Amino acid sequence: MTGSVERVRSLSIWTGPVKPQPLKGGLSNESFTVEDNGRKYVVRFGEDFPVHHVSRENERMASAAAFKAGFAPEMVYANEGVMVLRFIEGRTYDASDVRKNVERVADLARRFHHEMPDYVSGPGRLFWPFHVVRDYAKTLKAGNSRMVPEVPGYLELSAELEAVQPPLPLIYSHNDLLPANFIDDGDKIWLIDYEYAAYSTAMFDLAGVASNALFEPPQDEDLLAAYFGKKPDADLIKAHAAMKCASLLREAMWSMVSEIHLDAPGVDYVAYTTENLERLKASVDAYRSRF
After folding, report:
1. Which domain does 157 fall in, by range?
2. pLDDT tens profile 99-111
3. Strand 30-36 vs strand 39-45: parallel, antiparallel, or unpaired?
């Protein structure tokens, strides 16, 4: 931590001495808030994580594009392994906030999905959660993970969930819609953290919103109706429920991979794996019982 604080202080953009304050919550990055000349910023450190398909060059591009499109705070500085963004004064959402703002969140997701392609540049990156699961399985085997005996079951489950996904238009998605990545300033909701931004279908973002905010089936249907502008049919409801399971499977396997490849300060990846596997089991049980 001391080295990171000194690195923040040494950045050339400050007008005078600064006192970085740790910003808690990240599972793979270190972040700090900094006040300088009456303005507040977030300093975010992060390296490329090939095992997680994370490229900081892509993150910087997506962050800059999202600012131009009106979804993200301005990135005022970027260099190898570090970004500095303007701090958004507002309420950072928790799960209950997302559940109370279903229509606003759905509208934000729809606009983001369809407006961002006009602003992104460079190679067209893809994010397909079922490919991610298959690749994580290879990474776990190569790293002799403690979870290797469970991998065949995860792949079977992934194939089952992928099989019910309907064809949908290709859009530009965020792919990490945790409640804490929504900030409400009272007038608009901002989106932050673009590590996984890429082209996909809308279903993973919608499932991520619902899963991370602990939606029940009626709220799932409200979200789908608000996003698509009509009452969802049975196939869409089933596909969304399956993708909620896939979202949890991908998150659990993300944590398994992180157990052997990451070492963020204060993060217990084994506990996070256990938490997500418990949520996955409950979600899959509910999915299979219902469908």
Report:
1. 91-290
2. 999 999 999 999 9
3. antiparallel
